[in-house]
Amino acid sequence: MDIGALLTSAGINIAICVVLLSLYSILRKQPSNVSVYFTRRFVSEPVKRSDPFCLERFVPSASWIMRAWQATDEEILAVGGVDAVVFMRIVVFSIRIFSIAAMICIFLVLPVNYYGQEMQHKRIHAESLEVFTIGNVKEGSKWLWTHCLALYVISCSACVLLYFEYKSITKMRLAHITGSPPNPSHFTVLVRGIPWSPDHSYSDAVEKFFSTYYPASYVSHQMVYRAGTVEKLMKDAEKMYRMLKTVEPHGKQGSMPCCLCGGTTHSFKMLSHEAESVKGKTSVDELQSTQREKERPAAFVFFRTRYAAVVAAQVLQSPNPMLWVTQLAPEPHDVYWSNLSIPYKQVWLRKIATLLGAIVFMFMFLVPVTFVQGLTQLDQLSHTFPFLKGILKEKLMNQLVTGYLPSVILILFLYAVPPTMMLFSTMEGNVSRSERKRSTCIKVLYFTIWNVFFVNVLSGSIIRQLSVFSSVRDIPTQLAKAVPTQATFFTTYVLSSGWASLSCEVIQLFALLCNAFRKFILRSKEEPSNCTLTFPHHTEIPRLLLFGLLGFTCSVMAPLILPFVLVYFFLAFLVYRNQILHVYVSKYECGGQFWPIVHNTTIFSLVLTQIIALGVFGIKQSPVASGFTIPLIFFTLLFNEYCRQRFSPVFKSSPAQVSIRNLSI
Amino acid sequence: MDIGALLTSAGINIAICVVLLSLYSILRKQPSNVSVYFTRRFVSEPVKRSDPFCLERFVPSASWIMRAWQATDEEILAVGGVDAVVFMRIVVFSIRIFSIAAMICIFLVLPVNYYGQEMQHKRIHAESLEVFTIGNVKEGSKWLWTHCLALYVISCSACVLLYFEYKSITKMRLAHITGSPPNPSHFTVLVRGIPWSPDHSYSDAVEKFFSTYYPASYVSHQMVYRAGTVEKLMKDAEKMYRMLKTVEPHGKQGSMPCCLCGGTTHSFKMLSHEAESVKGKTSVDELQSTQREKERPAAFVFFRTRYAAVVAAQVLQSPNPMLWVTQLAPEPHDVYWSNLSIPYKQVWLRKIATLLGAIVFMFMFLVPVTFVQGLTQLDQLSHTFPFLKGILKEKLMNQLVTGYLPSVILILFLYAVPPTMMLFSTMEGNVSRSERKRSTCIKVLYFTIWNVFFVNVLSGSIIRQLSVFSSVRDIPTQLAKAVPTQATFFTTYVLSSGWASLSCEVIQLFALLCNAFRKFILRSKEEPSNCTLTFPHHTEIPRLLLFGLLGFTCSVMAPLILPFVLVYFFLAFLVYRNQILHVYVSKYECGGQFWPIVHNTTIFSLVLTQIIALGVFGIKQSPVASGFTIPLIFFTLLFNEYCRQRFSPVFKSSPAQVSIRNLSI
Question: Distance from B662 to chain A by nearest Cα, in Å?
Fold first, then answer.
């Protein structure tokens, strides 16, 4: 691939982005799309304003960009909670570090690469991209210290930035714990693994246990009940009722006859009330005997003070660690009710099973990725399918296939991943939605890094022989050989997948189509009230981190990727701010618990970059540069360990000092 | 090596053992050795009984064996505490599992190995030991299912036994927590990382913090003070005084003039009192200003109830996890005072540094081990040193060098290891002796397993090419090739190192020589009162576990090792019981916290055995046996995970239920 092809690819992508963003700026002005693009405002005041028809509505404008740019961090915090701010911090951190990296790499490393070998340079746009990578530097070159210096600058500034980010996010988390308005969940502990005894019910056991061991602070408790078949039917009915209600509004009769629920709306409503009571809102008196049978070995226990709840959640309760397992209760919106009744004894087994399932899924995914990889190596492809030879000889076609098609295919396949991983995390037995999301986030992250980065890097020639798994010591060398040559693919990946995904994110294609379908096919006048979305951390954080990883690993090796990564993050900054401000509604939050994942992944990216650099310096026979890289790896790991000691315990359990100081009643 | 050589080696070792044990049975009857062999009784009533001189004193007897055999577990518990019982459980577990292994391997596997190949069998005592290993089985043999079956039986029974041991030891630990007599340390929490402020002293900070956050349960606290130069001098003087006191007893003047402390004994005593006061026994009033300067950021905090102490120790105190770090205080005898003043901020760094130090030490040790390994390969040796050829041609010499010398050299080198590791663990910053011992135990264990097992297995031909580190996938195959051939060495190692170490343990050579030196050279009449030993868990547990590992890994491959391992454990049963009953004094204990180490190591041994078997089955081209081994590995790991979930939390922190039920005042 040469500069020309890269520019073609960039051109296509810029065009697509501009078109989509303009389209967005028009679509958002249409009153019919308020429920799609202003969900947040729409939920709080679902009044339909019919603006007068005017030309302005059909002219693209950049006002939303200004709005997103001007929003302050406080505004984001107020609107999206700590998690939204943490998400924006990832973007800001990436912009900062890649600005530094771009400065040093483009002005120092790129010239060294370009003039690395005594060769006849072609005209710039016909120059192969390889000329700009470290592969062009002579073996034993004395200029490799520039790469080593760049590596040092990037690593050190990344560590410094990471430290301050971690510090400020820890502070934000603590402020969130102390500052958030008093909430029943702060005083509540979720108990699982209540031991069964034939003499008394689970409820009696909880009562007895906590009034014995926490006599001063125990207030009461609420058992979790099993949802039987009838409850499930009622739930389905309730769901259907709600769905129908959106089509046929409660007040008006007519416009579209509904034979299923004509006149029975009231009975549906009663049922739905009853269904809610199953989740613990009515008194336990009625249906005493059956309810006892329906009790599950899990309960919410309420304490007098917040501190007592924190203590009860952190202390090991029973000599059998599988019984009386306590944790702070999630917020009411955050509870994932159907997992509460999973016996705690199963949880560890479920975790292992889903882990294995996720790993198998990861490796199964090799098939499409290997196919995609094949597309970038056109010679082989036209060798295998001779009929393609004619098509591939055309220049534009060639550029399109090498520069664009692989990424598109990969993206389409990747869309199936988050729902699968979410399913795994549900089966894992997480009791809260935020926990499930975090678990999904980690799974998707591993998946993305493995399948986009490693498989692409290693599949070139190695995975076919399956010898990569047998050599540990050669990994740096193998990576060092593979990464610079794969830099082209990664650059196009950032271009296509990165930029396009942001355009898709802002335009909310799926919600838009649904809305259009409802408006123009079902001809519903009433706006739907329950289709709010929470921010999809589990897909967006891995995506940001993947581009961070690509940026880091290619920075010193193939600096040409950096401008594209930077543009991606700038665009991400605007798009995600806009989305947080207008689209997503945060029903629950986990108080910044995503940051440790981000921190660890960034450290991983840094160390991987350093290991690859070590391999490259080895290949280029520069013992000095290699010698300087080894302590850098060591100090990066040491820094990570320090942060783990200094900050991460606060993200696992809330400190007593904080919970006592502000919120003991 | 053939059966004859093995029997020679066994003969030598049996002879040595019998001689040493007989010598022991004589020596222990001498009244002058009471302080060596009956330290426990001697400490409680240091009266010198002069038995009448009779012939019986010089006749070897087996009465101590009977005594050790008849002692009950309750007696051991009363005398040595939980740790001693846990230690004996390791021996009992090993005896049980290796009895089962010996039964199945000798009656089922051994004949299959012996008749594995159609060959002319020599007379039994000239038969090479290789004939009895799995190496003698034909490739693709249909009899390999016996090995697979034996592996299944051994793994399953080991898991079942491990489960019940873990269960009973957990119960014992809980009984120890609730049942031990009330002790100030139960109500005490050790706080480290007290933040420094210019306004008030550390003591004020502690006072303020705990009376704010634990107003109901906080009683008082005691700061830790820095030992200055003067204190250190005083300490040395105190030590010297004690040493001199043993030579020149307090009551009698004369017999040996001591110009250093004639008449100053009293002042020494006074000083020693003052030295103790530094560790916190006098009131803080005197020397107020200097003491404030000497305060270290660590303190013991006393609580009203045991439960409050448990809570304060388990809950995260401060938003900065490096400050106000709490843990349950160790028992007074257990506290390692000089490490208390290490700033908590350093601890994580010290841990990493000592870990790296220990790893470097482990690899430095390769040098002597490689030399030892060379001795078992005589051809190479006589090739390198031609002058040895003459000596080595003699048969006895040959047998001695191959069968005995390597082990002896290895043992001598290994004696230097525990003190080094203890030094590392001291530098690590452990605040209690038991914690330090546990940390040393783990280090010595890794060291032993690496240097005795892996290096010997892998050094044969592989380590020289250093290619072993580069191949992950081939490890099972490499191990499978190496272990059966190294079985001979391991058998002789069990014979020489194992049996001899037990004889040395029972005879307490060092203490005996010291005693003789004091009695006959210094001519001291007074018995020393402060030379009691605590049980050296950190050397003995790794030794037992190493022999367990050798037994497991060789069991299916080379079953001939099993009788020797069994004899070792039987002997260990008698010797260690005797030592616990008579010699060692337990000043402090850690309540069975060694067991998780033992459990994990045994699981590691099992999985290693299974991996090696997998490799062997692969080499022998038996897909069925390999196929059955893989689920076995998986289920063993699953079992381990279950035990980790079910039992290990109790070994990390004490459960609230237990600490409330019995000992809240």
Answer: 12
Q: Say which range, A5-14, A322-331, A615-624, B279-288, has the weakest mean pLDDT.
A: B279-288
Residues A177, A213, single domain; the answer is no
From residue B321, how far is each of A242, A635, B202, B257, B325 by CA, in Å? 48, 21, 18, 58, 7
B471 at interface of A, judged by CB pairs closer than 8 A: yes
Residues on chain A touching B349 (C-beta within 8 angstroms): 638
What is the pLDDT, as a whole number, of residue A90? Answer: 94
Domain boundary residue, one of B280, B311, B330: B330
Nearest residue in B to A321, CA atom = B646
**Which residues of chain A from 211 to 240 reach within 8 Å of chain B, CB to CB?**
212-213
Which pLDDT tens digit goes with each residue over A299-345? Answer: 999 998 888 888 888 888 888 888 899 998 888 888 888 888 888 98
ipTM of the shown complex:
0.80
Cβ neighbours of A349 in B, within 8 Å: 638
For B175, name the nearest residue in chain A, comparing CA atoms only. Answer: A319
| CB pair distance less than 8 Å for A657 and B473 | no
Q: What is the 3-state secondary structure (H, E, C) of A426-485?
A: HHCCCCEHHHHHHHHHHHHHHHHHHHHHHHHHHHCCCHHHCCHHHECCCHHHHHHHHHHH
B539/A181 Cα distance (integer angstroms): 56
Q: Calculate how close chain A gets to B660, using CA atoms only, in Å.
A: 7
HSE of A227 in the Cβ direction (CA atoms, 13 Å)? 19
Give the rounded distance of the alpha carbon of A618 from its chain centre.
36
Look up the pTM and report it: 0.83
Between the alpha carbon of residue B231 and those of residues B242, B271, B343, the distances in Å are: 16, 9, 20
Query: Which of chain A's residues have a Cβ under 8 Å away from the Cβ of B429?
Result: none
B461 within a domain of the structure (yes/no): no
Q: Is the dihedral of CA A513, A515, A517, A519 positive or negative?
A: negative
How many independent structural domains does chain B possess? 2
| Å between B592 CA and nearest CA of chain A | 15
A466 and A579 inside one domain: yes
Measured between CB atoms, which of B317, B324, B646 is closest to A322? Answer: B646
Residue located via tokens 């004020």? B204
Q: Are residues B633 and B511 in the same domain?
A: yes
Q: Within the 303-322 window of chain B, which residues sit less than 8 Å (CB to CB) from chain A? A: 310-311, 314-322
For residue B607, name the pLDDT band (cuts at 50, 70, 90): very high
Range(s) of the domain holding residue A299: 189-330
Question: B605 with B525, same domain?
Answer: yes
For the stretch B220-236, pLDDT in tens is 898 888 766 666 677 77
Residue A201 structure tokens:
């019910």
Strand partners, A301: A189, A221
Q: Which residues contact B283 (CB under 8 A, 6 or more apart)?
A: none
Question: In chain B, whose CA is at the least distance from the CA of A215?
Answer: B660
Q: Do residues A176 and A154 touch, judged by C-beta distance below 8 A?
A: no
Domain match, B290 and B160 both: no
B469 in A contact zone (CB under 8 Å): yes
Residue type, A58: F
